[in-house]
Amino acid sequence: MHKLAGIELGGTKTVVVLGAQGRIDERIEFPTTTPTETLDRAIDAIQGWRDAKPVDAVGIASFGPVRVSREAADHGFMLDTPKPGWSGAAVSGPVAAALGCPVAIDTDVNGAALAEHRFGAGRGCESLVYLTIGTGLGGGVLIAGEPAHGLLHPEIGHVRLRRAPGDDFAGTCAFHGDCVEGLIAGPALAARLGRHPSRAEADDPVWELVAHDLAELLAMLVLTVSPQRIVVGGGVTGKQPHLLPLAVSRVPGLLGGYLRDCTRERLAGMIVPPLLGEDAGPMGALVLAARALDDRIAAVRVAAGA
């Protein structure tokens, strides 16, 4: 069986893993600092594993926005991002150059979506949305089991939605103010609550406003993407488990009876936490590595046939 390595490059921390699809054998975690320091640490970790075990391919599941189109001249480069020092950084290129093996890159949320689709809460679903609500808010979309790309890739965290009546919080997004990331991601919640979101009481009235905003996002996804499953992960809903059921209970009212299948009971089974927990991103990076290896093998076969 091929040995694969994965890099989950997050805005706060980086996770480097060794394993196979559906299995993590080794793991190293460290803070995400500068591009050079962070990628060098990831490369060193993989090189250390290669000294004892061959690593056949690497997958990178990265925060973004990042250029994922293989045809683009800046494929594998970070675009404009709030993470200081990372705008314009080369992400996949240094890894491929240092390790000399196939490398694939996609967003961290597309990677997590692939893992949950293959091994977790999205098994058996052709269409799936994976949301993560933590330091930022991101969304990965799978259609027919494949990540949605297009012009760039989904940037669900930066949509603007209807605000709750009387909610005048300005939002914290450096680009859009009160987009949904600027309203309910970790920094926004810290500003709204006056303390770290994990330490806030479940009955704090601010959660009603947050549930409204999250419900608006969920209703929008149901109407636009029509997913069979929405998986909601990240530290915010993980530390405040009451939030997701509170938001889901509001979605039927927002839909206004338009979709008869979207009852409260049906939505409670359709909008769920991840089964893989914090392993979704690293396991998704391993899925991307397997895809990179498959692509290389297919290219070699085509070349040999020619």
CATH architecture classification of the largest domain: 2-Layer Sandwich
Bin the strand percentage. 15-25%
- The helix count comes to 11
Compute the number of structural domains. 2
> What is the helix fraction of residues, given as a range?
25-40%
Number of strands: 10
Give Rg in angstroms.
20 Å
The sequence of SSEs as H and E is: EEEHEHEHEEEHHHEHHHHEH
From the spread of the alpha carbons, the general shape counts as globular
- Rounded to the nearest angstrom, the distance between the terminal CA atoms is 28 Å
Helix-and-strand structural type: alpha/beta
The largest sheet, given as strand count, sense and whether it forms a barrel, is:
5 strands, mixed
Mean pLDDT: 94
CATH topology of the largest domain: Nucleotidyltransferase, domain 5
**Segments where pLDDT lies below 50 for 5+ residues?**
none
* CATH class call of the largest domain: Alpha Beta
Describe the strand arrangement of the main beta sheet, using strand numbers.
3-2-1-4-5
Superfamily at the CATH H level of the largest domain?
ATPase, nucleotide binding domain
Enzyme class: transferase
Pfam families: ROK
Cofactor: Mg(2+)
Protein name: fructokinase
